[in-house]
Amino acid sequence: MNKTVIIIGAGFAGINLARKLDPNFFDVLLIDKNNYHQFQPLLYQVATAQIEPTTISFPIRYIFRKDKHISIRLAKALSIDTQEQSIETDNGTFKYDYLVLAMGGKTNFFGHDEISKYAISLKTTMDALEIRNHILENFEAIVNHTYEKNESLYNIVVVGGGPTGVELSGAFAEIKRDILPKDYHSVDFSK
Ligand SMILES: Cc1cc2nc3c(=O)[nH]c(=O)nc-3n(C[C@H](O)[C@H](O)[C@H](O)COP(=O)(O)OP(=O)(O)OC[C@H]3O[C@@H](n4cnc5c(N)ncnc54)[C@H](O)[C@@H]3O)c2cc1C
Q: Global pTM?
């Protein structure tokens, strides 16, 4: 009889593991709190309104539609009972033979509470949309007031100069130069 493998998280790790498990030996239950896989490398383009979220979001059920040994559940994992070999979610309890936690990571603020309090992190599609909406709302505010009153709205601070921070900064520079001036005629972009 096949063993049941539960994988929590349909990110790169969860999806690749599910693909590699031999259907002759394993039944797979893939659980994610979203019904879509998010392609994180292009989140910065969603955050800067260069692409739509649907471009980087793929329905998990579609990815595995040909794999009869892989079941999908939309559920948030809440707790694990290792004695009972079961996992409790907000959508029921599931028994496993093997359990794999592939829930990804979260932004590390390295103890800087002042940054975590004010900054928007960039790990999910929802984060990207929050950044995008925030920037566009700032520009709506800018056109209603004088520069002196709104000076801080003209400034964007990116914390973290790794690939994500650098790509995001570059994309902001592009939309400042090529896109926003077409939409906000009265704004002085040299500021
Ligand atoms: C902005 C950004 C840009 C990146 N660019 C690159 C790049 O260019 N090249 C590169 O190689 N890597 C890049 N990375 C890193 C790469 O995306 C990650 O290393 C990779 O996504 C990690 O995969 P994962 O499966 O471990 O986690 P994730 O992809 O984060 O997946 C975790 C999954 O678990 C689910 N989940 C979490 N908690 C629960 C729960 N309690 N219950 C149910 N489901 C849950 C989430 O919904 C998610 O689907 C980037 C990352 C970011 C954030």
A: 0.92
- Indicate whether 145 and 121 sit together in one domain: yes
pLDDT-derived band at 29, boundaries 50, 70, 90: very high
Annotated catalytic residue, options 114, 151, 167, 174 = 167
* Last residue of one domain, picked from the residues 69, 101, 133: 101
- Residue-wise pLDDT tens digits, 126-139: 999 999 999 999 99
Residue 175's pLDDT is what?
93
The pLDDT mean for the chain works out to 95
User: Measured in angstroms, how far is the CA atom of residue 39 from the centroid of ligand 1?
Assistant: 8
Please say if 84 is a catalytic residue.
no
Domain boundary among 68, 101, 134: 101
29-to-67, 100, 147, 190 alpha-carbon distances in Å? 11, 10, 55, 54
Which residue from 7, 12, 35 has its CB within 8 A of the most atoms of ligand 1, so it is best to mutate? 12
- State the number of CA atoms in the 13 A half-sphere of 128 facing the CB: 28
Residues 67 and 135 in one domain: no
Residue 108 counted as domain residue: no
> How many other C-beta atoms lie within 10 A of the C-beta of residue 189?
10
Choosing from 8, 46, 103 the residue with most ligand 1 atoms within 8 A of its CB, the one to mutate for a pocket test is: 103
